[in-house]
Design a protein that fits this description.
alpha+beta; six-stranded mixed beta sheet
């Protein structure tokens, strides 16, 4: 979080009150999104996202593994987030490690859900042989620069990377002992992961008496509380968490949710349109 003076704080808050932010945006406007697809050759799917100066990279790898004994009919998703010490002065030492753990926890909760309810990857579809073999999905993210609103950027990049991920083709047959056996192809010629139910996180912050989206680094110290709303392509809220030192103004809460519901589907639609235009490679 940027260190700003009292005068700068007053200037930013007054501008937000008048719906004219320091970079010219309105309160309900995101900074330009720039997405690069398949940027990590060793990953099964990857995406790099610039949200203004915020820069994040997400890679996805899929491998065969054994289902958890408590969920023998489901695959698994593991998320890790690393914050480069160059991304922000606050990330040096344990600061970046602790923040990465918090981001990973928030991101994983949005990726793992119940597709029937309109959220998350379908973990049941990742199971190949109940109790024996499933797909393990590893989502590894790197924060290269913190220019504000890192969680939203990670969420959008993760959804893109998952949608770009193609799993290896497998065949399940019975061996001589009449037990299922999984044969793995050497090429990623299978179907892509179904990320259509994965939501994006839209963070709406309370600054003074106003709700604001996509805070820049210099705006974040002015927020008293933030509402992180996971929204799917149908504008359905599928998850919500709150952060910040103060409570949310009850009169603003409904407005903040509605802002997220309005913006989320548009982000997903733009993302899906771009991904659909990318040629499929094996």
């Amino acid at each position: 979080m940027a260190d700003i003076s009292v005068g700068e704080r007053i200037y930013i808050v007054q501008g937000i009150e008048q719906d004219v932010r320091t970079d010219g945006r309105s309160r309900a406007q995101y900074r330009p999104l720039e997405l690069e697809a398949n940027v990590v050759a060793q990953a099964d799917g990857s995406a790099r996202l610039h949200l203004g100066p915020t820069d994040v990279l997400v890679g996805v790898n899929v491998e065969l593994g054994v289902p958890d004994s408590s969920s023998p009919n489901r695959g698994q998703v593991h998320v890790s987030v690393e914050c480069s010490s160059c991304a922000s002065p606050e990330f040096k030492g344990r600061g970046g490690e602790d923040w990465g753990i918090e981001l990973a926890r928030a991101l994983e909760s949005s990726l793992v859900g119940a597709p029937a309810a309109g959220c998350g990857l379908d973990l049941a579809a990742l199971c190949l042989v109940p109790g024996k073999t499933c797909w393990l999905v590893y989502v590894d993210a790197l924060v290269l620069n913190d220019g504000g609103n890192v969680l939203d950027a990670l969420s959008i990049a993760a959804r893109a990377a998952l949608a770009l991920t193609r799993v290896y083709k497998v065949e399940v047959s019975m061996n001589e002992d009449n037990e299922p056996e999984v044969e793995l192809s050497g090429e990623r010629e299978g179907a892509p992961l179904d990320a259509s139910s994965v939501p994006v996180i839209v963070t709406v912050s309370q600054v003074g008496n106003r709700s604001v989206v996509d805070l820049a680094a210099e705006e974040e110290p002015c927020a008293s509380a933030c509402l992180h709303v996971a929204v799917n392509s149908k504008a359905r809220v599928v998850g919500m968490t709150k952060s910040g030192s103060s409570g949310l103004d009850p009169s603003l809460t409904q407005e903040m949710v509605e802002v997220a519901q309005k913006l989320g589907p548009g982000i997903i639609a733009s993302l899906d349109k771009y991904i659909s235009s990318i040629p499929v490679t094996s």
